[in-house]
Amino acid sequence: MIARVIVTPKPVVNDPQGITVRQGLAALGFAEVSDVRVGKYIEVNLDVATEREARERVEKMCKQLLANHVIEDYRFDLEPNGKGR
Amino acid sequence: MKFGVVVFPGTWSDRDCGWVVDQVLGAELTYLWHKEADLKGVDCVIVPGGFSYGDHLRTGAIARFAPVMEKVGEFADRGGLVWGICNGFQVLCEAGLLPGALLRNSSLEFRCEWTNLVVERTDLPFTNACDDGDILRIPISHGEGSYFADPATLSRLEQQGQVVFRYADEEGRVRPNANPNGSLHNIAGIVNSRGNVLGMMPHPERCSEAELGGTDGLKLFRSVMHAAEKVLTA
Q1: How far is Cα B87 from Cα B167, in angstroms, rounded to an integer?
Q2: Residue B185 is a catalytic residue
Q3: How many domains, chain B?
Q4: How far apart are CA B14 and CA A85, in angstroms?
Q5: In angstroms, rounded to a whole number, what is the distance separating the alpha carbons of residues A70 and A62?
Q6: Which among A20, A69, A71, A73 is the top mutation candidate for probing chain B, defined by the most B β-carbons within 10 Å of its own β-carbon?
Q7: What's the pTM?
Q8: Does domain A2-79 have CATH number 3.30.1280.10?
Q9: Parent domain of B168
Q10: Predicted ipTM?
Q11: Is B211 a catalytic residue?
Q12: Is the Cα dihedral B143, A66, B185, B182 positive or negative?
């Protein structure tokens, strides 16, 4: 399986990168942009038997390392990577 | 009195801290390599500044899993003195030894400059050589030093007096324009509720000799030495 993990700053966390990108877009004429948040995209390849197992393992990875619960939220999708067992 | 200075791959302030301990303070010094799960009988652990493990993923995120950190956690649980400076502060937050997190500076710039810190606690092992109302001139050097904690945690820190240092102007006034990185409440350093784990973004080891432009940092090293000797002779 391949997990596509997206980590974003929590809504209450100030995101200066997002603000800067928003200002850049405004300067380019994208006046419709009201907010930008900059996060991280992480791909994790796993050798597991089932999607359920993959989900449990990736949850643990997110909680223990991939995201910091104080400042970040995470979500992920799973997809077969063609190498599945 | 023996200080242990933790060294991860990418740590850069270990020798500066070691120099102050060994050459300026005249205390015993040992370096604690990240792979060694042994604190070698030290009285105070310094987790110094730098870019441990390249700061990959998040600052301090990988360092907290190093074998030495498990021992540092146990040492802190027993009441041992743990002092995180800059990246060390970030590591202690990631490890859960201190609350909150350090975010990218609000300016998005790496800031390397002198700051003025008001000292709000002088009863701690780390600050007992300071006087009430002291303003310490200590430099910062970081890109990710903007202190953040959720509102409940922040109000608990304030109520329990766990904010030790705040960025201020030269007169000691805590003003927004004296805040170099966007830290909430101008927070530059905090202590855990038990008072034995300190985290701070400014670098006292870089201003502990007159040749370096100031000696205010030495007050903190002297405090720790004083505290440890009191315990040793008690």
Answers
A1: 18
A2: no
A3: 1
A4: 47
A5: 13
A6: A71
A7: 0.93
A8: yes
A9: 2-233
A10: 0.84
A11: no
A12: positive
